[in-house]
Amino acid sequence: MSFNEINNLVVPQGYNGLRKLKSLDLSGVGVRDGSKLLQSIGSFSSLNSLYLSSNNFTETVTITTQELHNFTNMEYLKLDDSPLHISLLQSIASIFPLLKNLSMIGCEVNGVIRGQDFPHSKSLEHLDMEFMRIALNTSFLQIISESMSSLKYLSLSYYTLGINSSETLNQGLCSLVHLQELYIASNDLRGSLPWCMANMTSLRILDVSSNQLTGSISSSPLVHLTSIEELYLSNNHFQIPISLEPLFNHSRLKRLWAYNNEIKAEITESHSLTAPNFQLQSLLLSSGYGDGVTFPKFLYHQHDLEDVHL
Predict the structure, then answer these.
(1) 46-52+82-309 has CATH 3.30.565.10 classification
(2) Which of 34, 161, 204, 221 could potentially form a cystine with 88 if both were Cys, beta carbons 3.0 to 4.6 Å apart?
(3) Average pLDDT of the chain to the nearest whole number
């Protein structure tokens, strides 16, 4: 139903249809009243994918106790006699504890998010919040790590993570040990990648491009992320040796985009491995190289290359 002129969605009270509905796409429909929206779709008890991208919801979602009793999956929220004033995200987590996929790309949600008593979304695996505009009063990443421990996909690109420091990532993100895809591009993150990221050994795709990150990849947690298949480091201030030797053990690496970083010459020609374990398909290393950089010899061992920028 996405991108239609729907400004009010009404499902009659007691409606028993669509009990097997698995996926609902209400992206860009113009519904501003988040309360009424959740009152309407809360009866879809089998929902596991919800798409709300490109909507601008009103400031606070208010749900009364009686309305909450009408929902079917209410194991995770304590009820009392007063209306609840909680954010849209908290409401979704409460009403749909079985939800696996949630997309809120480009949404504007100004409600307060509270970490205390935030309902646990143990089933949520995919959370996409690119271009999200949201007012926070606590560490959002900490809330995610404590209440969404099953996440496999998380996108916060083009988002303001807060204090513009890579230490922001320490606030819970590294405990998401099941995470396979992490996108945090264009957040003005500064400093070096925190070492706790070395524990995120399930990562297949990591995108930290277009930040202000620094440090040598030879002494970074990237060395330990050997399950990486796609690594996006472009538009930062990383120090990357032209040999790519720190990544030689990354046997699954297929795509490396690292343009506009500090590409460094080799200090010595002796390498622990004569050839890398990876076979790249796409390599972008364009940069203002300095003097003394020689042609990268690891390219002699690459046979699957389709796209190379030097």
Answers:
(1) no
(2) 34
(3) 80
